[in-house]
Amino acid sequence: MAKRFDVLVVGAGPTGLAAAQAAASHGAQVGLLDAQARPGGQVWRHDVRHQAPRAAREAFATLDNVTWLAQHSVVANEPQGLRVETPGGSELLGYNALILATGARERLLPFPGWTLPGVCGAGGAQALTKQGWPVAGKRVVVAGSGPLLLAAAATLRAHGARVLGIYEQASAATVRRFASQLLHWPARAAQAAALRARLAGVPYRCGSVVQRAHGEAQLQGVEVDGPRGTQRIDCDLLAVGYGLVPQVELAALLGCALQQTGKHPRVRVDGLLRTSVPGIFAAGEITGIGGLAVARIEGTMAGHAAAGFDQEAHALRAQRDKARGFAALLDTHFALDPRIHRLADARTIVCRCEDITLGELDGFGDARDAKLATRCGMGACQGRLCGSALAELGRFPRSGSRPPLFPARLATLAGHTSLSPSDDAYRGS
Amino acid sequence: MSRLLRLSVNGQSVDVPAGASVAAAIAQATLHFRRSVRGTPRAPLCGMGVCFECRVRVDGVAHVRACMTPAVEGMQVYTDG
Q1: pTM to 2 decimals?
Q2: Which of A152, A330, B23, B45 pairs as cysteine with B51 (C-beta 3.0–4.6 A)?
């Protein structure tokens, strides 16, 4: 039998937490699930050493009014609801209204050497550091694009890493223009100033791109191409990320209409965050990368609307639109330099799951043909990484989303709610 | 500083603070989490459960994403490195 909620929220980042809280404030029975063990999503991820920001702690405190479903990962859509895998088995979760708050992942782009241990995303490095990854005394290069680089560098430094430099691909002139716009966004300006203060003494270089990572069994150094030529920097860790892309896989699986923003899809919603599928709402990063402020407002809007309180949702639209304005600013100023699309050469691995190089994909015009001939996109990540990268590189977009959404146990797909002891030996293998 | 947990990674004892992930525990011992299909060493890339580069064997269960799994006292972890 399916458990049933008035409102089910998928994703417990700032969007999902706000959505669950808003829906529960109207007396709705709310379920909030996340594949992670703790709420907070990425931006409010638990840090083993440092206390969460106050806004995050306040949001976690409101979980008392909702059913919190940790380590619940949606794998499929069934007539009665969502099929969810847990560490100990699986469940079917029914709902009257569903709010998708699946957030974003990093835009991770291939370059020679990017598969070496010691190379990770910028947000990836931040997440791992918060998980207790040993970075104290390690030499770290932070690179890529956007404000996330500053946040990642600050976390790394707070855990004792030696941040050798932050290498931003956008030009100095563009970054200056962006900074001057911050005058119109006092809260953001204060945030940026606080981050810079925490990073005092760390070089911030614009117009600079990591074009290669060196090492045999693991990373030993990187080659940075900047306005003053190419330099080699020895380091233990490279944290490199080029911003974020919406995670639309579940929305696509449920049949919600998507729309393209640049090279990546986002979920299409109306003014009350309704998707094209009745009863399904989408909020936050999956409706277009907007950042924390947008996430929290849209989460609240979706929570109100999903509980049937449209006016409360509507009242927040102006505030949301203003917050989206800042996101648009980021988008324009941190647009990717075309040379980043040329970093990968024919021998660079693009599909990390199946070890398929960019050269092996020459001549293919769509993801399905490439997959059938090369296995590109058929590995454990199900084309999330190579799909977004190939779309970014202008090769071809990812093919559609099919169940299971993530690799799942056969017992889950068969609808078994709990694993028998004998399954232990087989699950996942 | 929070309480420490002791895990075994490839037979080697490692200590991590409570609340740490299995990925963080492994990194105390090795950066080689798995071997790719063509045999090259890999380590976590995304840190959030998307890339599957951190998958290892935990208490006999294969293909567990180390970055998504909270460290537990006494866990037996094996990498493919």
Answers
A1: 0.96
A2: B45
